[in-house]
C-alpha cells in the first residue's frame, strides 16, 4: 500500500489493531451506486453502513431530477437519464468539496487492467400472459444477467488499496466528462468507496483533519461500520466538521467548528427532539426541499 493510500485508509478506517479492519465491515461498503428497478430515481442500499454516502447522493440526485424540466416524470426516468443524473450529482458533490479550483479534482478508480471481476446473478423475469391464454409447456422464463452490488469474494482491504489509480482534472467541464466516462465504475464493485476516496482527495487530507474535531476518530466507525457526522457533513456541505450548529463556538478555550454556509440539501435528526443536539438553521433550512433524516444509526433521504 502506498503512503498516500495509507493516509486515506487511516483517515477513513482508523489505524487498525493487530486484527486489521473487519472484513465484514469492509465488505458492507463494497457496493456501487445502483438504481432500484421499481423506483427508477431511487438508489439501493444492501447492507448497513454506506448510507452516510448513499443518502446524501440520493438527496442531491432527487434535487437534480425534480428540477430538471427535461424529465417531467421523475419516478420513471430512462437509463440514460439515470446516468446523467448520477454523474452530475457526483460532480456537484466533488465541486462543493474542492477547497481550491486551482488544485483540481481528484478521481479515484481502478488501475489499468486491475478492475475486480464483478460476479453476475441471473434474475428471472416471467412475461405476463394474456388472460385465458395458457403458457406453452416448452417455454422457459427469460434470464437477464445483471451486475451485483458486491465485490468479488477475494477482494479484501489490502487488495483494494493496492489496485487504486488516482488522476487529477483541472476544470469543471473536464470533471463532468470524466464522471460520465466512469459511470460503470461508480455503479460497479466498490463504487461508493471509490467516490468517497475521490471526495477526500479532492478536499485534501490535511484540510479534512483541520476540520474534524477529533482527528483520532475515523470517518467510518470500526465497530459498527456507520459513517461519522463529519463524513455526512463532508458530503452535504463540502466541510468535514463534526458539529451541526451555526458557525464556530468556543468551549473552554477550544474552537468547535460548525456550519458556515447554507446547503442545497438539509439535515435533520431525531436526536434533536431528544435535546441531544441542535441542528443549524443553515443546515436544516435549505435552498431546496430535500432533507436527510438521521434515525439513530441510519440516514434516509426525504422530500
UniProtKB/TrEMBL annotation:
What are the boundaries of the region Disordered? Answer: 117-146
Q: What is the top-level taxon of the source organism?
A: Eukaryota
Q: Which GO terms describe its molecular function?
A: cysteine-type deubiquitinase activity; K48-linked deubiquitinase activity
Q: Which SMART domains match?
A: DUF4205 (SM01174)
Q: Does the keyword Hydrolase apply?
A: yes
Which UniProt keywords are present, listed alphabetically?
A: Hydrolase, Protease, Thiol protease, Ubl conjugation pathway
Pfam families for this protein:
MINDY-3_4_CD (PF13898)
Q: Which InterPro entries match?
A: MINDY-3/4_CD (IPR025257), MINY3/4 (IPR039785)
Give yes or no: UniProt keyword Protein transport: no
EC number(s) of the enzyme? 3.4.19.12
Quickly give the catalysed reaction: Thiol-dependent hydrolysis of ester, thioester, amide, peptide and isopeptide bonds formed by the C-terminal Gly of ubiquitin (a 76-residue protein attached to proteins as an intracellular targeting signal)
Q: Which residues form the Deubiquitinating enzyme MINDY-3/4 conserved domain?
A: 9-302
User: What biological process terms from GO does the record include?
Assistant: protein K48-linked deubiquitination; proteolysis
Give the enzyme class.
hydrolase
Q: Which PANTHER family match?
A: UBIQUITIN CARBOXYL-TERMINAL HYDROLASE MINDY-3, UBIQUITIN CARBOXYL-TERMINAL HYDROLASE MINDY-4-RELATED
Protein task: Hydrolase that can remove 'Lys-48'-linked conjugated ubiquitin from proteins.
The family annotation for this protein states: Belongs to the MINDY deubiquitinase family. FAM188 subfamily.
Q: What is this protein called?
A: Ubiquitin carboxyl-terminal hydrolase MINDY
Query: What is the gene called?
Result: mindy3
